[in-house]
Every structure is written in structure tokens, then in C-alpha cells.
Amino acid sequence: MGGAPPSAAVVFCYSFDRLGLPMLRTCSIVIAVIAMVASQAAQAADTTLSLACKGTATVDATPKPISMGIILDLKAGKIDGFGKSLPAEILTVDETTLVFSATDGSRSIDGNVDRITGDFKATFVMRSGGVVSWSTTYALKCRPTQRMF
């Protein structure tokens, strides 16, 4: 998909004249329905973005390959993919960067997404008694995708 829906469309429908012969005519109702559906699809596409990401997750200075899905919900201001229990809040969005963060008691995540290159960087930290018990640093390359089903 991508891009705006066409601003005008012409759809032809067949109807029959008084003798029962097919007659070609423009169907304005069909055009209106197509415009409404295209507009709704474009709005949904603009507010929610599914990303397929590959790269490394580094724990204790040991990078390991990882592949994961990330969902950006721009309308709700949330990013999900690090567990449903810790959805991050989108703090800022500009032409090139999206910045996010979340804190839930002992857990936190902070990161950013480069909207041009697809580079995704984040650090997930787990604390115990105020001291970092472990952390994972993600360095991913993401691309837009569509859900499989």
C-alpha cells in the first residue's frame, strides 16, 4: 500500500434501458463507497505500523541474533513488542526519529527508531533493590511489514 488514495475515480456499471438492453453509466454510489474504504484504510495505515526487525540482543556483553516484531501505534502513542506487560510510551516523533520509554517499578526500557534507515536501538533494564541486576541492549534493523493473518 502506501501513498494516498486517488482523489477521483470513475467506475462504470451496467444498467438496462427500457428495452432490456445493457446500458453503460457512471455509478456515483460505488465511487463514494470506494473513497470511504480507501480513506479508512489510509488512516489505519498512517496510525499503526508493524515492523519486522532483525539484529542483536546483547546480554552480559554477549550479542545474540534476534528476530522480533514491533508494533508502533502512533495514534495511541504506544510501542509494543517487548512483552505486553511493558508497552512503551512514544515520547517524541519528528521527521527522522521516534523516541520511546517505559518504566514499571523494577523494569524500564528506553530507545529510539530512525524513521529513515529503520535502525532500532533500545535498552531494557531490570533492577533489584535499586541496583541493575541485568540489562539487554537491542540493535535492530527494522522494515515495515504486514501481518500474515
What does this structure look like?
The chain has 149 residues and is mainly beta. The chain has 2 domains: 12-45; 47-145, Porin, CATH 2.40.160.90. It contains 1 helix and 10 strands. Strand 9 and strand 10 (131-145) form a beta hairpin. The model is unreliable at 1-13 and 24-45 (pLDDT under 50).
CATH class of the largest domain: Mainly Beta
- How many β strands by DSSP? 10
* Secondary-structure element string: EEHEEEEEEEE
Label the structural class.
mainly beta
What are the defining features of this structure?
149 residues, mainly beta, Porin, 8-stranded antiparallel beta barrel
Topology of helices and strands:
Elements: E1 12-16, E2 22-26, H1 28-47, E3 48-59, E4 62-73, E5 78-80, E6 88-93, E7 97-104, E8 107-114, E9 119-128, E10 131-145
Antiparallel strand pairs: 1-2, 3-4, 3-10, 4-5, 5-6, 6-7, 7-8, 8-9, 9-10
Give a brief description.
The chain has one helix and ten strands, in the order E-E-H-E-E-E-E-E-E-E-E. It is mainly beta. A hairpin with a 5-residue loop joins strand 1 and strand 2.
